[in-house]
Amino acid sequence: MTVTDINPVELEPAEKRRFWQEQIDQQLQSKMSQAQYCDQNGLKLSQFTYWKYKNSKKAADDVTFVPVPFTGFRPSATGGTSLNLITTTGHRIEVCPGFDPATLKQLIAVLELS
Prior knowledge:
Elements: H1 13-30, H2 34-41, H3 45-61, E1 73-75, E2 81-86, E3 92-95, H4 101-113
Antiparallel strand pairs: 1-2, 2-3
Helix pairs in contact: 1-3
């Protein structure tokens, strides 16, 4: 079965997500632009772009927090009290007063991918 034999609109939600993730992975491996890949495989570029965004957003939403032991607070370079975290992979995160939790969540997601 080829890509052109599949109508993604008719797939169940989980199958649809898998279908588009496979297309995204194959496009990245192909070294073609998104437009070229979609044209060659009979896919709509707008749908490809939508699912690429949706699947990347889903991956970011799947971030979970785990307890991280720390030795306490120490003054930061800015003069306030900050929290310093060192991950098991050696990344150091300094969280200053007034930090944005959404930004911290994004940072942790990026570090988990590296």
